[in-house]
Amino acid sequence: MTKSADLEISNLRIITPFEDREYESRLHHLEGCITIKNDKIISVGECQGAKLVINGNGMIAIPGFIDPHTHIPFVGERSKEFVLRAYGKSYVEILKNGGGIYSTVEKIRSSSRKELVEENYKYARWLLKSGVTSFECKSGYGLDLENELKQLRAIKELSKIVSQTLIPTFLGAHAVPKQGENKYLQELTTMLKEIKNESLSQFVDVFCDEGAFSVEFSTELFKRAKEMGFKLRAHAEELSSNGFAVKASELGAVSVDHIIKIKDEEIPILSKNKTTAVLMPATSFYLKTAYAPARKLIDGGVRVALGSDFNPGSNTFYSPFFTLHLAVNHLGMSPDEALIAHTLNAAHVLGISKSVGTIEAGKQADIVVLDAPSLEYLPYMPTNEHIRMVLKNGRKVFENKDNIPG
Ligand SMILES: [Zn+2]
Fold first, then answer.
1. Ligand 1 centre and the CA of 220: distance in Å?
2. How many Å apart are CA 123 and CA 72, to the nearest integer?
3. Contacts (Cβ under 8 Å, ≥6 apart) of 406
4. From the CA of 283, how far away is ligand 1's center (Å)?
5. What is the pLDDT, as a whole number, of residue 267?
6. CA 310 to centroid of ligand 1, rounded, Å
7. In whole angstroms, what is the distance from residue 295 CA to residue 304 CA?
8. What are 379-405's pLDDT values in tens digits?
9. Coil, helix or strand for 384?
10. How far is the CA of 173 from the centre of ligand 1 (A)?
11. Which residue has the higher pLDDT, 291 or 83?
């Protein structure tokens, strides 16, 4: 027995992904204790003793959820557009009418960095109360040097005041600005240099699709970004089959996101190149469109991660429990596959899998304790109210006692 540990949670049912081999994970089920010293897990299973012991009362412990795709930070809201779409206007139609994403761009341009940080603190808290302990943040609502940098600097500031780990992505190529994509390429190249100088992001993303950037432009941007040492991610084939998922994969992209319209024969290429598919079924649900071919991707050997795509225009759902529900009910994933996809596989996308994504000795103690009878119960009853406690780096950062009588 060692009393040198800081915290031990006893009497837990621990469910955690475990990587048997590179690219191959399954869930491990253990019973007993999680022992924590400083910010790290030092033991899982057998109880060790600690200065503070909390009885887990047979509850489930899973790794903190990781959201590998959000559009935080944004400002303002687009509820009018939501209602218009509900009555039949398509995303492309709304874009062509000057609505959609450009209205958020205007709001970002007229907001200060401080306002951005303040407004998005709220969303970080919402995610925390949903069990999300690390998440990706994207720029992409500035579309010029000043405002893209403002968004990325806001992410950096936000990361200092929220509990979670934030991973920034530069998405300057989110929507085509009025000067057209050809003139914009040079501006983006200037932005890349500035972002590199200030170490504001390791990742570069592009929205390559109908109504957004062309395959030729996106390929050229990726080549330039890769040469400068950025890691690549792509919004690909959400609205149309244009082959960019394969192009991005061949250029070494870490992930291709959405890929609802990917062709069957392209799937083996993602598998061969070890490109992760990030799927966001909440966006399909919100837009009432098709779901990604998750089953074909998984059966074809592609690593699948799940994310929210939380943003003000095309999806306002952010709870991982809802994503798990959609993954099981609409993507054909098993509860085990869905949990791995929203923890370890998401960590792989963000380049943080060495420190988070599983409950293992040596990893950061990012843990969610759930009052639920089984893993299957989470997608079946998709509410954040399962959460009893969220630990980030070994510290209790959220607790919910609302549902306990007395
Ligand atoms: Zn997105």
1. 20
2. 8
3. none
4. 9
5. 98
6. 8
7. 10
8. 999 999 999 999 999 999 999 998 888
9. helix
10. 11
11. 291
Comparing CA positions, the residue from 179, 241, 188, 232 lying closest to residue 210 is 241
Give me ligand 1 centre to Cα 71, in Å. Answer: 6
Q: Evaluate whether 31 touches 45 at the Cβ level (below 8 Å).
A: yes
Distance 346 CA to ligand 1 centre (A): 15
Give the mean model confidence (pLDDT) for residues 183-201. 97
Domain 66-350: CATH superfamily is Metal-dependent hydrolases (3.20.20.140)
In this prediction, residue 83 carries a pLDDT of: 86
CATH class of 7-63+357-399: mainly beta
406 has pLDDT over 80: no
398 C-alpha vs ligand 1 centroid, how far in Å?
27
CA atoms in the 13 A half-sphere facing the CB of 236: 30
Phi/psi class of residue 263: alpha, beta or left (left: φ > 0; alpha: ψ in -120 to 50)? Answer: beta
* Ligand 1 centroid, distance to 256 Cα (angstroms): 11
238 Cα: distance to centroid of ligand 1 (angstroms): 10
171-210 burial string, b = 16+ CB within 10 Å, else e?
bbbbbbbeeebeebeebbeebbeebbeeebbbbbbbbbbe
350 CA → ligand 1 middle, Å = 15
Q: Where in the chain is the domain with CATH 3.20.20.140?
A: 66-350
For residue 59, the CA-to-ligand 1 centroid distance in Å is 34
Q: How close is the Cα of 258 to the center of ligand 1, in Å?
A: 8
DSSP 3-state of 173: strand
Instruction: State the distance from the centre of ligand 1 to the C-alpha of 281, rounded, in angstroms.
Output: 12
- pTM (global) more than 0.90: yes
| Tokens linked to 181 | 């994509």
Q: How many angstroms does the Cα of residue 160 sit away from the middle of ligand 1?
A: 24
